[in-house]
Structures are given as structure tokens and as C-alpha cells.
Amino acid sequence: MADVKYTNEHEWIRVDGDVGTIGITNYAQEQLGDVVFVDVPQVGRNVTKGESIAVVESVKAASDIFAPVSGEIVEANGALTDSPGDVNAEPMGKGWFFKIRLSNKSELVGLMDEAAYNTFVKGLG
Amino acid sequence: MSTFTGNKALQIEEPLIFEMGQAGRCAVDLPEPPKVKDRLNGLRRAGEIGLPGLSEPQVVQHYTRLSQKNYAIDMGVYPLGSCTMKHNPRLNEKVARLPGIGDLHPLQPQSTVQGALELIDQLAHWLKTLTGMPAVAMSPAAGAHGEMCGMMTIAAALEARGERAQRKTVLAPESAHGTNPATAASLGFTVKPIPANERGRVDLAALKAALGPDVAAIMLTNPNTCGLFENEIIDIAQAVHDAGAYFYCDGANFNAIVGRVRPGDLGVDCMHINLHKTFSTPHGGGGPGAGPVVLSAALAPHAPYPWVVRDGEKWRIAEDGSTVTGAPIGRLKAFHGQTGMFTRALAYIMSHGADGLKQVAEDAVLSANYIMAALKDVMTPAFDGPCMHEALFDDGFLKDTGVSTLDFAKAMIDEGYHPMTMYFPLVVHGALLIEPTESQAKEDLDLFIAALRSLAERAKSGAEAEAFKAAPRFAPRRRLDETLAARKPVLRWRPSNTFKQAAE
Amino acid sequence: MRYLPLTDVDRRDMLARIGAKSVDELFRDVPQSARLGAKVAGLPDHQGELEVERAFQAFAAKNVSPAVAPFFIGAGAYRHHVPATVDYMIQRGEFLTSYTPYQPEITQGTLQYLFEFQTQVTLLTGMEVANASMYDGSTGAAEAVLMANRVTRRHKALISGGLHPHYRGVIQTAARWEGFSAQVGTPDVDGLEDLIAGIDKETSCVVMQNPSFFGHVRDFAKLADACHAAGALLIVVVTEVVSLGLIKPPGEMGADIVVCEGQSIGNGLGFGGPYVGLFATKEKYMRQMPGRLVGETVDADGKRGFVLTLSTREQHIRREKATSNICTNAGLCALAFTVHLTLLGEAGLRRLAELNHAKASQLADLLAAVPGVKVLNQSFFNEFTVRLPKPAAPVVEALASKRILAGVPVSRLIPDDPAVANLLLLAATETATDAGMAPLVAGLKEVL
After folding, report:
1. Domain extents for chain A?
2. Is the ipTM of this complex over 0.85?
């Protein structure tokens, strides 16, 4: 079972081998409301941890998505162009944004596990 | 209960002009053009443009029926906080259309437009005197454009001091209107937020801690977007200047203090003035506006051209870098500025005079406080104490009712009112910002207050959430699907659009 | 005072309800040193309508209205006849005194006419999508360059020497303070400028005008191809929107962004403003567009309706990451444009454009016959450039003192350039008459 980690910007990353799938959490999609558009990064682009690499737009807000780890973008979720609502319906599943080939697995160490993330969200009130 | 046409008495279901037109119809009679040889370099337009043909009666009916779907100041209280929806006098419209004023070309020889230049100069004189500032840039076309102008003059002043590269930070409260950080960012500044204290004003200690040699400017609105006057503003200005930075003031809320307080006395370096707010030029469904910027002596040399300059009893326009003294930032717009709005604003200003303008600010502040006093027991004021020209509530009074600020606002529509500003400023949860202006009779304020009391009480009963969520029921349209509009944008009519009006 | 409904009795009652003794108490947060105590000094008191009207009539009396003089001034703003219907429709209170349509249920009037306006703009320009208007053509042009910079991630704009000097100035000001570079060509007096040579792989966009500032009508399809090959965008500016009734539209020649000044349709000269900017582009760039957008949708009952959409690009949501800081569109000026264009329709616009071209052709022929005057244009729509045997500015002043408004000396907009000192820009619209052209010709003969 692939391990899922979380950032305090409400992104999740599920790593399988050295490729991580990234999306936003259920809390994030609830805050945003109906997602209308996701601007995903180009395949082949090299990104650094913390870099702003995507934008998710709802009717009332637009949020930047930051790379939780460094690496190369190997796949972007093209289905989101026609069904941005997938992000609301299954934020941890078919609503994924893109996949990264990690260049530095040690960057995962600083991220939260599920329990820590749930505590973090509770604290936001 | 439906009708054959889908109409409901005076509310007519109106098609698009593209669904009404027919070839062979034209609402203008133009003479037959004489046949001349084309001098179009062989680029005569071929094929149809696709514009529909209508007759004049149809055009008048179409736009009249559309107009009947709009709420407007002319219909009643329009309580949009920060927008100053005051009465738009028709005298303004009359003078703007006078031959010799409304029909002048901006590039006529200057000797043939001395009256127009005098008009602009007179408005400039009023704006400078009312604000206590020595100079004014007249050309910005709207408030946001004025912000751009003001911040550019600050960038220019820093450059002249050799400090542009070092001073990259602009401080702005989190309650600031979105145009403030957007403007600063587009000029290459990084925006840092300044926190507010529990009284809703700028935290002076936090501001002083944030000031340093890297700060270019502070951008403040005063009264602020919570409707509160920054009582420590002179200390704020002093601290900003001591740190070598400039003070930009967003003049959107000038209506609260016009004629009673001069921003120049508060230490501001520049302030844009929304002529379409404080000075009654019509909002026109979203524009046009005008945003002249008053400037301190330090920033005046950097004002964009053109400059209208008085030489005794003659006026001239200095239109480019070679004819102005100083170090202008450049040109912000073609021609001279929104003269049509200058004319309207000057007519309003002359009609009110210094005594009338002072009364405007007092009545605006009085009306907002009246509303606050009358509603504070059923709704939740965001801050204690008097407000200025707008009353800010948060959604505390709606807690656990199942009714949101949005639902509350939509229910106001059925009561015959345009909703107040909602969800702004961002620093207050579920904000409801009410600005009545000085233009409403007390009886109309009393009815408005009574309607809001009724809505608040119904919401708090806890039994009406469904009714609120279904509002509005009586408007020309029910709630519209904004998600669909953003997911599948349809931004123009096409012959192939499959949507057809539901006739019954 | 006629605009202030509150009486002294009202004010007293309201203060009592508030629990304040005087209105001064409500201003207690104003620092002592800034309290004026009285009204602002040095300004007159209120006046009645009669006095205010007289003051404006006095201003008007010091101006020479185009209505009373032979008139041939263009250079980016054009005198056209606006049908009476337009002014009456825009003065309906529901349009004049309404606000931005943020509550769509009660502003379908504004939203629908803006949707129709957006459609009209795409049809005129031959483009796929248009916004609900910009302040004017010049600020629209600067926003177009900023958009091209965003789309291409490059920072170098190439500006044609045929672009209106004021538009060039606005772009240069944006470049200087917003951090990109704008390369400007020399004035393209003869219409033969080669912009292709200036494009490289750092160019974000090329900005050109058609018809150019000097009046030339050009085919720029090859320029569009060269831009695209280099990964740059072609921005085409049209300052006389009536020309689109007769000339191949920029969308059919490969433009990526089209910016027009819409003043000619529905909006009078107004001594320079307010005007209305048209902004159109390709669908793939839709989300990069500045300004407001109106989109179609349905309401809770399934009825078609319109809303502002894609607002997350805008400053009130995106704040420092917005596509632009713009908050307003041209509102009522866009309404005037759309009402006038609806009155004209397909047949009316084409005929209006033909009339303009015919008048300008007639004027060009008359002027070509004046000794010493050379018409420089092979092609034009309703405006062209002539070379006089002496500097044009004093000639225009001399004619003005005879109450003839004889065009714009190019040196007014391009000062300090001896190459253009003798050039005069003249426009003739459908409002030009034989009775106006004759004195111009006679006057020129006398003055030259």
C-alpha cells in the first residue's frame, strides 16, 4: 500500500517507487468550493520543492499548488480539463493533479502522515 | 403558474439581438455612398460580418426591456459598502452634453478649447483644495488606474533618490481592496501584510516593526475598509516618512470626510479619488470611472503627462516629456483623461459647494451610524464604537441558523433591495458592509432597517433556512449556476449554440 | 440642498437614536490637528441649477465646437454621427445608475447587453472571444502586451512605428515601471516598415496598427506567420473601429490579440474621454485575458441567464497574482457602442464605412490638386497623411484662426522630429461635407 504524506498547504503525495502522485486534500476542496479549472504543469518540467507549479480555481477563489518535493513532472491529469469536478468528488483518487519523479526522497521526511495532518486540520478550527 | 409567452406582466423574457435580427432591416438611414475606386490595398472585407439587422422600434424595445431587469440607484437604497452609490444628478448629464463641451476633439488647436482646459483646471483646483494637496494628476481612467499612477510616482521618486532597487516592499493591511496588492505586485514590489489591532485599525507597533530601509510605501485606505477612521494616522504617516517611505492613500472612502478633513493634513503623499464614488459620476453598470490622483510636493514632479497648465488667463496642455518640467512617469492613457467625467463631477461639486460637501460627509456618516444603531441588537457589528460612512457586520448572528451571508443577501433581493457588499473585507467572517450614503431620506432608511430586522429575525428563528436558500424568488432570474459558467465558458453567441429559451 | 434629503429634524432624531449629542462626536477619531472645525476655506458655497448651467455655458462659449466649423481631425478619435436613440437608451436610470453586475439576478439587463457586446466585438474583429471592454484602446494595448508577456514568458515587445504615438507612450510607460522592454521603430510615414526583421526568439509580441497612424492599410498575414514561427504573439490595434466594416479584419490575417478604440461607434468625442476599449483574442488564451468577462449559464429554474465569469483572474480575488489590477470596464460607453452597432446592423455598418472611405477619397483628390500638397498614402480608410511645403503646425493654427479645424500636425504627437514637421494628418468621415471641404482647400491655398 503506497504511503501518503501531507503538506500544510493541504496537498497530498502518494509515492510508489520513485514516482509520487499529487493532489489536494478533502479539506482543501471543501474550502475552495466547486472547482472550475486546474492549471497543471507541463510534462518534462523540473520543479523544486516549494515552487508554485499549478493553480486550482473555483468560482470564488484561486489557489496556488506548491511542489511538495523536487523532481520532474512525468504525467499530468488531462481528464481534469473536461471534469474539474473530479477534484471535489474524489480529491484523493481520480481528482489527482500530476505525478513527479522524485529527485530527492529525503524531502518526504519533513511531511506529515495522515494522523498528523488530521490533527493539523482540527487545529485550524 | 406559467404564461404562454413566459413573460410575467412587466417582466419580459428577452432574446438576444442575434435571435431577433433579419437581413433587410436597418435602424439607420444613410445616403447611398458615391462609387469610388477602392484605396484599400486590396483588403476589402469579404463575406458577412454576421451582425443582425433590426429596425429602430425593435432596438428601443429590446434595450428598454433589458433595462427593466436591472436594479439601480434611481430605484432605491443601494447599500453597497465601499462603492458610494449616491444619487446621480441629471444636471450633470445635461451640462456634459452641451455643444462646445461634449463634442470637442482632444487634438483641436489649443486656442480653440480654452474653455475645456479651464474646466479641467477648475476641477483640479477643487480637488487640490478639498484635499489640501499641491498637485493633481488628472489622466487616470478609474480608481485602479489611479492607484497605478500613484504607485508609479512613488517608484519614480525612489528611483530619483537611487533607492528603487533597495526598497522593494510595500505594506498593506489584509483588509485592503484587492487592487492595492495587485497594483503593487505589477510594479515589482513584494506586498507584506500589516496586522490590525482589536479595534480594527492598523496596529501601529506592528507597523513600526515592519518599517525598514527595504520599505517603499504603505498603502492604506482611510477611513479603512471596515468603515473605521484610522485615529493614529498622523503617527502612521510620521513613522512611514521617518523610515524614508511614502504613504499611498486609497481614496475610495473619501465620502466619509470630504469637506471636513483634508488628507493632506494627515500626511498622505498621494491619494486617488474615485469621481464615480464621492463625486456622483454615474456607475453606468460598471464604468466609465475616473481616478485623478492628488500628489504631495515630493511626488508632484513625477505626475504623468498631459499636464493642464495655467499661464495667467490662458491654459495649455503640456503633452509630452519635452513640454513638462519635472520628471514625469510618462503617459498613462491616450489624450487628456475622462473629460466627460470631469464635467459631471464639477457640476456636482459646484452644486454642493464647500458647505454642501461638508454636509454630504456628515449625512453619510450619520446615516451609516443610524443603521448601525438600529441593527446592532439583531445583527452582529464587527467592531465596537461608531463607524464612519459604512457599517460593517459579521455573520455571527447567523451562526447555527443554516443561513449564510450569501443566503441573507439573496433574500434582500426579494424585499426589493440590492444586497450590501458581502464577504469584503476579507478580515471579517461573512462580512456584510452597508453604505447608505447621504442620498436616502430617513423614511427610506427606516423601511430598509425594518426589512433587515425582519430578515435577521426570520433567519435566527432557525426554521427558515430552506426559504433563504431558495431566494431570490421574485427577481427576473433565480440564482444562477456560476460553476457551470466557469467550467464551460460560453462567452459569445454562436449560431450553433444549442441552448434555446424555455418558452413555457 | 436639493440632493440632501435629511432635514434638521431627521438629523436630530437620528443622533438621538445613535446616542450622540452632535455629529462631531461621530468624527472623534479624527486627530485634533486635522479637524477643520468649519467647511474647507477658499471655495464657493452651493449653487442652484441655473447658476451651474451658466458656468458651463461660459466654458462652452470659449470653445470652437466641431459642429460649427469645417472639421477634419482624427488621429485616434473620430467625429461620427450618433443616432438620437443611443443617448436616450444610455440615460435610462436602470442603465445609467446601476452598478457592476455582481448580483446577476437583478442585473440581467447589464449582463445581457455585455454578452451581446462581446459577441459583436468578436464578429467585427474576426476573433474567437472578447471581454466586456477596457478603459480605452491605449490602455487595452498595454494590457495586451502584458498578456503576451505572460503567455510567452518573454519580456520584449516590438512596437511598430505606425502605432499611434499616445498608445506607444502608454506601452513605454508600462514597460519602464512594470519591468519589460519595448523596442520602438521610427515613424512609419510611408507604410513600408519591415517588422519581421526585428523579431527574434526573445520577442513576446509585435504591436502594430491597421490602418496605421499615418493611415496606411496593410496586409500583415506574413508578419503573423513570422511571429508565430518565433513563438511570439501578434497584437493588432485598430483606432478607427468603423474601418472594420470595410477592411479585412485582423482575425483573418493571423492576429493573436486585437485591441480597438471603440469611440467611433456610439460615443462622442468628449474632449478625449471616456472612451471604450475593445479586446479580443483566441479561445486558447481566454484565461489570460484581463478585464471582465460575461458568460452564459442557467438559473435554478433552468432559464438562460448571464453572469460575470472567470473572475478568479481578477484583482478582487487573485490580489497580487491577478492578470491585471483592473476593476472597471467602460460600462455605459460599451452600452452606447452596442446600441449604436445594433442600430447599424450589417447593412448599416457596411454603408457607413463605404461613406467614410468615399469622403476621404474625395478629400484626398481635392488636396492632391493644391499646389505644394502631396498626399502620401496609396491606401487609407478615412484618414491619410499629406506633406506640406512648410511646417504643418503653424498652418493648422492659421486655419484655426479662420475657424477651420484642418486636421492634426503630426509634430504635435511626434515632437522634435524634423522628418515629420511638414506632415499633416487629415480625416473625413460621413459628417464631412462639400461645404466644409471647399473652405479647407481655399484656406490651404491661401496659407501655403
Report:
1. 3-118
2. yes
Question: Is B60 exposed, middle or buried (CB count within 10 Å of its CB: 0-12, 13-18, 19+)?
Answer: middle
In order of B38, C14, C360, C383, the CA distances from C375 in angstroms are: 16, 71, 12, 11
Options 3.40.50.300, 3.90.1150.10, 3.40.1670.10, 3.90.640.20; CATH for C66-82+346-447 is 3.90.1150.10
Please tell me which residue of chain B has the smallest CA distance to C402. B112
| CATH class of the structural domain A3-118 | mainly beta
Which chain A residue lies closest to B486 (C-alpha atoms)? Answer: A36
- Check B482 against A37: CB less than 8 A apart: no
Chains that touch B (3 or more CB pairs under 8 A): A, C
Does the domain formed by B92-349 have CATH 3.30.750.24?
no
b/e per residue, A78-98, with b = 16+ CB within 10 A? eebeeebbbbbeebeeebbbb
Who among A37, A39, A61 is closest to C317 (CB)? A61
Separate counts of helices (H) and strands (E) for chain C: 14, 13
For helices C332-368 and C434-447, give the axis angle rounded to 10 degrees. Answer: 60
Strands B169-173 and B215-221: parallel
Q: Are B140 and B333 in contact (CB under 8 A)?
A: yes
pLDDT by residue, tens only, chain B of 504 residues = 789 999 999 999 999 999 998 888 999 999 999 999 999 999 999 999 999 999 999 999 999 999 999 999 999 999 999 999 999 999 999 999 999 999 999 999 999 999 999 999 999 999 999 999 999 999 999 999 999 999 999 999 999 999 999 999 999 998 888 788 889 999 999 999 999 999 999 999 999 999 999 999 999 999 999 999 999 999 999 999 999 999 999 999 999 999 999 999 999 999 999 999 999 999 999 999 999 999 999 999 999 999 999 999 999 999 987 777 889 999 999 999 999 999 999 999 999 999 999 999 999 999 999 999 999 999 999 999 999 999 999 999 999 999 999 999 999 999 999 999 999 888 899 999 999 999 999 999 999 999 999 999 999 999 999 999 999 999 999 999 999 999 999 999 998 764 444 333
The strand order across the sheet containing B246-250 reads B135-137, B293-295, B270-272, B246-250, B215-221, B169-173, B190-194
Q: How many C-beta atoms lie closer than 10 Å to residue B415's C-beta?
A: 17
Chain A positions in Cβ-Cβ contact with residue C313 (cut-off 8 Å): 62
Asked if B273 and B293 count as a contact pair (C-beta separation under 8 A), the reply is: yes
C residues 157-176 closer than 8 Å to B (CB): 164, 166-167, 169-170, 172-173, 176
d(CA A26, CA B436): 40
Exposure pattern of C260-276 as b/e (b: 16+ CB <10 Å)?
A: bbbbbbbbbbbbbbbbb
pTM value is: 0.95
- DSSP element (H, E) containing B152: helix B143-160
C 40-69: CB under 8 A from B = 40-49, 51-53, 55-67
Residues 6 or more apart in contact with residue B366 via CB below 8 angstroms? C6, C11, C14, C15, C18, C23, C26
